[in-house]
Specification:
Blueprint (H helix, E strand, L loop, with lengths): L1 E9 L2 E7 L10 H8 L9 E6 L6 E7 L9 H13 L7 E5 L2 E7 L5 E4 L6 E3 L4 E4 L3 E6 L8 H9 L10 E9 L2 E8 L4 E3 L3 H9 L7 E9 L2 E9 L5 E8 L2 E9 L3
Parallel strand pairs: 2-3, 4-5, 10-11, 12-14
Antiparallel strand pairs: 1-2, 1-17, 3-4, 5-6, 6-7, 7-16, 8-9, 9-10, 11-12, 12-13, 14-15, 15-16
């Protein structure tokens, strides 16, 4: 089977996108998707997305982790698939699409960056040395003084496979405060089982727990190994977060065709 694909990246988080509006790639198996995402034998990517039709929406984003398994929401993937929709000729002020965690909106701003509205967050679980919250995917947030010198792969893997999180898995984010409204984030990502250059839902989670205003509007600038993002949100009196927007670049890397054994 010949697969036509496009590869995109958002701050170094890279994805294979397949136009599946006619359903021709729906039957891809876990093994085939994992092979396509393999950086030595396939195309190479942190994940794969199907661009599907969806009644009542501009499209549906179906996301798979690099291990080939169905994934939860991916923030950078969501921004990349908006760029893909635009490149296909779908031009509009506000995009509405369906993702693994439900409905989302997105915009392309006047700087040509993608603004993706994330789901509201109602609950943050505070622990002695870390925080856990769900921004469409579950995240473990740990603050540190020198994030660039942490062994993210070894430490992140240990946390991800620890007893509380082993069954479902969790993304592990190491966060350093670099200013009143700026942070540095590195992420060990489940499904990839390695450090990724950026993680959109992880950046969002880290920004929420780094709010500089106790209530009202916040904007947090986020540096990752793959580039810069920002997160805008409103923090409410009860600790609820709403109007959460993940903002940053998304770019086409290359297009191609590849043969896959069926």
């Amino acid at each position: 089977m010949t697969i036509s694909f496009v590869k995109y990246q958002g701050t170094g988080n890279d994805f294979i996108i397949l136009d599946n509006r006619d359903g021709k790639y729906t039957a891809l198996t876990e093994k085939q998707i994992a092979w396509l995402c393999d950086r030595k034998f396939g195309i190479g990517a942190d994940g794969l997305m199907l661009f599907n039709l969806k009644d009542g929406y501009d499209f549906e984003m179906v996301y798979f982790n690099a291990d080939g398994r169905p994934g939860s929401m991916c923030g950078n993937g969501g921004r990349c698939i908006i760029r893909y929709a635009s490149d296909l000729g779908l031009h509009q002020f506000t995009y509405r699409f369906w993702a693994p965690d439900g409905a989302h909106e997105a915009e392309i701003d006047n700087r040509n960056e993608i603004r993706l509205k994330m789901k509201d967050v109602d609950k943050i679980d505070d622990h002695d040395s870390y925080v856990v919250l769900d921004t469409g995917s579950p995240h473990f947030i740990k603050f540190a003084d020198d994030v660039m010198n942490i062994d993210v792969v070894e430490t992140g893997r240990d946390i991800r496979n620890s007893k509380p999180f082993a069954a479902a898995g969790i993304n592990v984010n190491f966060v350093e405060n670099t200013g009143e409204d700026s942070i540095l984030v590195r992420t060990y990502e489940r499904g990839v089982e390695d450090e990724t250059l950026s993680c959109g839902t992880g950046v969002t989670a880290a920004a929420l727990v780094s709010a500089h205003n106790a209530r009202g509007f916040n904007r947090v600038e986020v540096k990752t190994p793959g580039g810069n993002l920002s997160v805008e949100f409103n923090k409410m009196d009860d600790g609820h977060f709403e109007n959460i927007w993940l903002c940053g670049p998304a770019e086409k890397v290359f297009i191609g065709e590849i043969e896959v054994d069926m």
